[in-house]
Structures are given as structure tokens and as C-alpha cells.
Design brief:
This protein is of the alpha/beta class and 307 residues long. It contains eight helices and 13 strands. A six-stranded mixed sheet has the order 5-6-9-10-12-11. A hairpin with a 6-residue loop joins strand 5 and strand 6. Helix 1 (3-18) packs antiparallel against helix 2 and helix 5 (124-131) packs parallel to helix 7.
Amino acid sequence: MDVIAAKEAGRAIARATNARLTRRHFLVAGVGLFGLSAATGVYAGAIEPFGLVVTRYAPKPRGWPVDRKLSITVIADLHAGGPDMTLPHIREVVDTANSLQSDLVVLLGDFTAWYRFKTEPVADPVWAGELARLKAPLGTWAILGNHDWWHDLRGVRSALAGAGIPILENDAVMLGPAGQQFWLAGLGDQLAYQLGHGEFRGVDDLPGTLSRIKTDDPVLLLAHEPDIFPKVPTRVALTLAGHTHGGQIRVPLIWPHFVPSRYGARFAYGHIVENDRHLVVSGGLGTSIIPARLGVPPEIVHVTLGA
């Protein structure tokens, strides 16, 4: 790494540590950090983003009956588009998801890639056509993410509708057979409108969403960004979120400070339990800002609830 790059990386790290942190700050600093190891840079850009793993969780939230078994496949942050999330990779994601034979599939937003490094667009009807192949007895349900709102809201809505995948936006539906029913609630995006200077206005309405729930059956909540979690009441058995990409590039001792969340590492990734409330944050599939991943391979999350 030359002196100028090293200085710029240092400045980027300092700025990000002392200001409101975003993934962009992190990745700008990461460009300089990659210079420390060409092999690491090649792996992060040319190998890890093209992989796929299944990450399994079996949380035991107090609000979910132990005899009510439910399996959920979680697909977050597809970011369809090359170089990493091309059509063959999307097909692999769908095939792998179907092989899990879950009761329910949920899609947590950010369906297309929007960065200047995109080498191969995947049209909305194409990625949506692949997602239409997802199979689950209780259906496939979606929410929207911030990039859907910022870049392609009309296209994403139309593509999901054409694929027969309903969007839950500050709404809830009851699913499951008699005696095994539960509520699936979907929250509007929390960063829907960019106001400038790092400020946003969301379309999320948590009280309004929960007001749709009319019985005592357990509740699952879908939220693109995990930052809503401190406001989620114990009435919700489990919250599922994406957005963070797990930091996307996890450099030891550095990555927690650059997760795109006001809470830093607190809700960055994985299964989090606070005050008997459960949250699972997916590391997602695609990439944002730059097409690279390190230490957070593309993943499908599989959650099992109940005995």
C-alpha cells in the first residue's frame, strides 16, 4: 500500500470512528486495508462473494409455543447483478432454498444491485422469475429494503407482483392450520427517504403493524433494518432482519465500527437475545458499495421454531 493510500485509509477510519457510521465509510477504509494483502483482496472480491452457505438457528423465544414447529427460510439482500450475484448464482440460491423444504420463505428486501462496479445487470422480471420458483406450504412473503426505495421502487414492486409474491408493508397476515396458527408481520422500511447529511425518513409504523394482530397467536416480525429491535415489544416472538450484510467485510478489530447501524456491532449479525426478545440478523447474499465480501459469505438463513 503506498503512502497516499495509507494516509487516506487512516483518515477514513478516523472519520468513521468519530461520526455517524455507514457502510460507505467502512468500505472506503477497506480499500486501503486491502492493500495490506493482495491475496486477501483477491479472495474478498473474486472468491467469497460467489459462495453460498446455509446458516441454521433454533431459537427458543418465550413467546413461541414449544409444540408449534415451524421452519423458515430467510433470503436477505439479494442485490441481483454482476459481478457476484448473476443469474446462475441466483438460481443456486433458489435451488438451495427449495432443498431446505421449509414451511415458510421470507424475503427481507434489497433485491437489486446499485453500485458503479456493476458489470452485469439482472432485470427485475428475471430475478423475480427465479424467486417465483421458491416453494413452501405457507408461501413466500416479502418486505422492501432501503435500496428498493432509493433506486427501483416501482420496478421491484411490479416484479414481485408479477412473481406472485406479496409484500407486507406495515401489515400482518395469519398463517398456518388451525391450532398451529401464527401472525407474520412485515414492517415498512426505516430508511425509505434520503433527506441528506446522513438523515432519513422511514415509512415504518410498528404500532400500526402490530395493531393488525387480532388474536393471541404468536408473532413473527420481518424488518429490513435491525435497528427497530429496541422498540419491538415482547409480544413479538422473533424478529428477522437483514441490511447489515454482517458488515460485509469483517476485518478483525475493525469491522464492528463500520456496520451500517446506529448500534454498531450490537445488531450486526446472528442470533441476538435481549430481555427475552429474540432477533436473527442475516448476513445476506449480495454486496453493496463494492462487490466484495470477507468473513461473511453469502448465506441463506434457516430458522426452526418449536420442538
